[in-house]
Amino acid sequence: MTEPQTLTKLIALYMLNKVDYPLSQAQIYEFTLEKGYADYFTLNQALFELTEDGFVESSKTHSTTILSLTDKGRDTLTFFGNRISEGIKNDINAYFEEHRMEIANAMSVMTNYYRTSSGDYVAELTAREKSVDILNIRLNMPSEESARIVCDNWREKSSDVYAFLIEQLL
Fold it and tell me: For position 39, what pLDDT does the model report?
């Protein structure tokens, strides 16, 4: 039997390997905690170690931590993936099937904002299709609040903005 910390890491690697786009940390937490495969602290430590050891890449936006599998993580999963039971693999596959659209939509629209050296803020807005960026916009904003509002509205309006730009430019 695989020790809990190792199994938790393998579950995270398996989940990241099942999709061709990054997953949010919250999506991995949702599945793993909901199914009872790990407690919060074990999962948190496992994801931290996977990132620190180079098996997973992590990036943060203003509201989301995004995780993606590295080649090192993929290789590790190839060697040790057989330590994940078929029952757990089936649960992961069922989770992705059930939440496929929700997960893809969450990862197709990305936002972030940050403060510049001049004191303004930049809102970064991205629309993705699978793992390819189809639109990247950076907007200088006068305040953190306006940058946050732009980022929050991007989720609802990104399709309309993209369609407008394509119509105007073509």
Answer: 93
CA dihedral for 27, 30, 33, 34, sign (positive or negative): negative
- Give the helix ranges, DSSP H, for 37-143: 40-52, 71-80, 86-108
Q: In this predicted structure, what is the pLDDT of residue 144? A: 92
Structural class in CATH, domain 4-106: mainly alpha
CA distances (Å), 82 to each of 9, 10, 89, in order? 13, 10, 10
Segment among 21-30, 58-67, 77-86 with least mean pLDDT: 58-67
User: What type of residue is 140?
Assistant: N
Q: SS3 helix, strand, coil % of the chain, rounded to 5? A: 60, 20, 20
Q: Where in the chain is the domain with CATH 1.10.10.10?
A: 4-106
